[in-house]
Amino acid sequence: MMYSSRRKPVLYFKEERRLLSGRCTVYKLFGLCMLLLLASLLWLQLSCSADLSSPPHRDRAAPREQAAPQPCPPDPQAEEDPSWGPHKLALVVPFRERFEELLVFVPFMHAFLNKKKIRHKILIINQVDHYRFNRASLINVGYLESGNDTDYLAMHDVDLLPLNDALDYGFPEDGPFHVASPELHPLYHYKTYVGGILLLTKKHYHMCNGMSNRFWGWGREDDEFYRRLRKAELQLYRPSGITTGYKTFLHLHDPAWRKRDQKRVASQKQEQFKVDPEGGLTNLRYAVESRQELSISGAPCTVISTKLECDQNQTPWCLLG
């Protein structure tokens, strides 16, 4: 009878079981045991002879040193390739205690931008003081700490990942480019929304004096920045031709696990709707506690741990209670 190769292992085990079937006599079992014993003694004799014939360990040649691990291949964006273009993006991520999202975000965005041949560096602006979270101030810090090797920035939430390769992260020469537009963002659909992911040149960001530092807690800083864009007479652009709708982005935030700080303290309810005509880059106060270069699953990023300062006479709502 012929069997397919997939069944050969099963046939092999069946043949082994036949050797120890009930038809074996006591004498056959005794003979088999003696053969195994003699084979073991012979193997032991040969092993000892080989050890005695070999020179002592100290006379042997020194073991070859273990080869040093090869360095990782160079990042494609660091190579001189004109197809990557002359511009470099500072991907600024305001951050506090969102490590689960960060472990996903950095490798994903690094691969996404490399695929699109966007020169970039990822800056995680980590707030380490005891004040309430201030997204706008952290983005201001990212702008100031991004270095002279970048010429435009992305204000990018850590919990928002682009799923459509057609999304443009290139240099926004004509004006600010809102990647996470209301027609595409999974949550926010009002016309003046400019949050989530916004690209703009450093020149245009400076023209707006950055973002207001008065927004402690969650929300409203993007709406105030929209007014700054209008005041600076900058034309806002949004994606066109994207057909994936509200499935264009993956939103990693779990509201049941991470509650947003939406409390409004003291006069914050009234102040949150006002325009801040003077605040921004010019009155930002902060200190960099540390600057660490990290690699997450092979993707490089820089974590800038930052302590913001708060003038409690101006914004007493920077503290809760």
Structure write-up:
By secondary structure, the protein is of the alpha/beta class. It has a domain at 89-258 and 265-318: Spore Coat Polysaccharide Biosynthesis Protein SpsA, Chain A (Alpha-Beta Complex). Helices cover 28% and strands 17% of the residues. It has helices at residues 8-19, 26-53, 99-115, 135-145, 202-207, 221-231, 268-271, and strands at residues 89-95, 120-127, 152-156, 160-162, 177-178, 197-201, 249-251, 286-296, 299-308. Strands 5-6-3-1-2-9-8 form a 7-stranded mixed β-sheet. Strand 8 and strand 9 (299-308) form a beta hairpin. It is elongated and about 105 Å long. It is an enzyme of class 2 (transferase).
